[in-house]
Amino acid sequence: MTHRKRAYAVIAIIGLGAGASFATQTELAQVFSDHQQGRAPRHRPDPSIVNVPRTGANLGDPLSDLTTDEAADFNEGLEEFASEDTAESGLGPIFNNVSCVACHSTPAPGGVSTTFVTRFGRMVNGHFDPLAELGGSLLQQSAIDPTAREVVPPEANIVVHRLTTPLFGAGLIEAIPDAEIMMYANVAKGDGVSGRPSIVQDIASGQTRVGRFGWKAQQATLLTFAGDAYLNEMGITNRLFPLENAPNGNTALLAQYDLVADPEDVVDPATGKSDIDRFADFMRMLAPPAQLAITGEARAGQNLFAQLGCALCHRPMMDTGPNSSKALHRKSVALFSDLLLHDMGSLADGVAQGTAQPGEMRTAPLWGLRARGPFLHDGRAATVDAAIRMHDGEAAKARDRYNQLKTNQAAQLLEYLGCI
Ligand code: HEC
Ligand code: HEC
Question: Peptide bond before 289: cis, by omega within 30 degrees of 0?
């Protein structure tokens, strides 16, 4: 039976079962669980993605000092990260893409892409309403059946694009202690720069933590982000996010097309891991972008970076704390971010998310800048130079100083940014 026919059969069953009255929640739940099926296997990736020798020198390679077990976890994690879902394996009913690597692909698995996702909501008197009852704030722009496809509802007066963020070095960022991030928030910085930690409830650990991932620092751990992305980008329910998204909030449409029993991603008894654990393994052990040698012009640019006040937010270095993995234990992390939220004025996207206000954005880590673009959360800047000129809010003073640089000095700064 095709999915379409199966869905009609269910409606008929509800009609019969409920008689003249409406079906109760329990009756409906029973009908749906009878009608839901088990999850089919995911599509394994093309061997050209997973079976490449990884020397540790390139983006997409694992951290260099992994144990044999960790290296095996990295490889299996990569395979899951690159595997594709289909309607039979639980994709959707509404989704944005079919695999993690579909968006995190360039220049290697774990990277970026020029694919945008769309967020919408309604701003009334300075208050942001994510329009959750209409399927917001994240739009799922695809569906396993065209009838279920979401649209931006007419109620929305904020519609923004977000670029994919890179995952290289994500495990090191995860291993930075909350206290290290909070400590710097309280340091007096000058230039009108402040910075606020994003305090979030981490679903995976149940703890109150400092958020650090995403444009709004909306998640604290890779496991929670993996669960969130699996549900919200691909429509795969999992133990952390067990409820499907209803298309624009329409639960009848959801019931019609949600054919695989939830949660779709379950622990494999053979390994004790589910897909979200595998995604987290892969991301945690991805090596950071390697810094190029800072010489000549770039060295002058490095001094300018500090003098202009860029380093007030783009903190060149933080340290990880004690960690059970040697590869993450007390390491320097040259991420060029304080992982704090800053009021960015006209640059911000107007979306409230986690504890981030509409005007606040997380300082974007600048490492690996040379391997991506366009820049800024919505890709509004085609070049690094344009991205700097579009800074506003707390970064207005640093931007003004950049605008006043002589051409050769600006070139030195850009040379430096191309090395980090
Ligand atoms: C449709 C494209 C798309 C797919 C599919 C996708 N992502 Fe993402 N990813 C994004 C975008 C866009 C962001 C930035 C999100 C934001 O902050 O709004 C992001 C950010 C992230 C981050 C935060 C990184 C950081 O430091 O900011 C993690 C972790 C992540 N994704 C993991 C995953 C995993 C795991 C999967 C597969 C389950 C996945 N993503 C699937 C587009 C995608
Ligand atoms: C007040 C804090 C602050 C200061 C000061 C600051 N930035 Fe930023 N920077 C940010 C934030 C926040 C973002 C992300 C904003 C967004 O995309 O909405 C960002 C983004 C960037 C990006 C784009 C990164 C990407 O991945 O798209 C570049 C490049 C950059 N900054 C360079 C600089 C340089 C160079 C300076 C000094 C002239 C500077 N910044 C000063 C906070 C700051």
Answer: no
Each residue of 282-303: pLDDT tens digit? 999 999 999 999 999 999 999 9
For ligand 1, atom 19: residue with the closest CA: 164
The Cα 416–Cα 420 span in angstroms is: 7
Instruction: Look at residue 30 and tell me whether its pLDDT is greater than 60.
Output: no
Atom of ligand 2 nearest to the CA of 401: 38
Q: Is the pLDDT of residue 31 over 90?
A: no
Q: What is the pLDDT of residue 49?
A: 80
Instruction: Return the best residue to mutate from 89, 103, 237 for the ligand 1 pocket (most ligand atoms within 8 A of CB).
Output: 103
Closest ligand by atom to 216 CA: 1
Q: Ligand 1 pocket check: which of 76, 158, 165 to mutate, most ligand atoms within 8 Å of Cβ?
A: 165
Q: How many CB atoms lie within 10 A of CB 16?
A: 9
Residue to mutate, 99, 104, 335, 362, ligand 1, most ligand atoms under 8 Å from C-beta: 104
Q: Specify whether the CB–CB gap between 349 and 339 falls below 8 A.
A: no
What is the whole-number distance in angstroms between the Cα of residue 376 and the centre of ligand 2? 8
Q: Which atom of ligand 1 is nearest to the CA of 219?
A: 23
Question: Ligand 1 mean position to 163 CA, how many Å?
Answer: 9
Token pair in block for residue 169: 């070095």
C-alpha span between 121 and 136 (Å, rounded) = 7
With a 6 Å cutoff on the Cβ, whether 328 touches ligand 2 is no
- Find all residues with CB under 8 Å of 47, minimum gap 6, and list them: none
- Ligand 1 is surrounded, with C-beta below 6 A, by 96-97, 100, 102-104, 115, 117, 162, 164-165, 167, 170, 213-216, 222, 225-226, 229-230, 233-234, 279, 283
Distances (CA, A) of 345 to 262, 358, 382, 392, 395: 41, 10, 20, 5, 9
Q: Residue count of the chain, please give it.
A: 420
How many angstroms does the Cα of residue 122 sit away from the middle of ligand 1?
23
pLDDT tens for each residue of 315-334: 999 999 999 999 999 999 99
Residue (of 201, 168, 139, 386) closest to 289 by Cα position? 168
Q: 263-285: b or e for each residue (b if 16 or more CB lie within 10 Å)?
A: bbbeeeeeeebbbbbbbbbbbbb
The contacts of residue 117 (CB under 8 Å, 6+ apart) are: 96, 138, 139, 161, 162, 164, 233
Instruction: State the average pLDDT over residues 355-362.
Output: 97
